Fold this sequence. Notes:
The protein is an alpha+beta fold.
Amino acid sequence: xxxxxxxxxxxLRVVLSLPDLKFNEDRVCCLFRPGELDLQMEWVxxxxxxxxxxxxxxMGDDPLRSRALxxxxxxxxxTRGETLSLEPDSDEVFLCAxxxxxxxxxxxxxxxxxxxxxxxxxxxxxxxxxxxxxSPLGFAGSIRV
Length: 145
């Protein structure tokens, strides 16, 4: 059975214990926990796609950091299928992903969202600490950024 956005939001309300969770008139919904999670979900109805976006930290001028971020995107080796991107106007690094609700069940969509949140938390902590997670299983101790 394919997921629907309404059913997904219903389930997220329960799973996240957020009874007021809903999309605004622009089809955007944000989750925020200071210092831990900043997640924007945007529903694109004509594509049946839920877009996920989470700011991770500033890029800065360190070429080693830039290289590590690009390397993590290579075959998604450090992102578990998500994509790292840079907002040019702000120098902010983001983790981005999309969930095609026509192709997955509600349970699978929730699992994908959970994985995205976990990846974003790891990257946020890593960038704040000057290092980058290079695999979905943890941080590579020999890679410094």
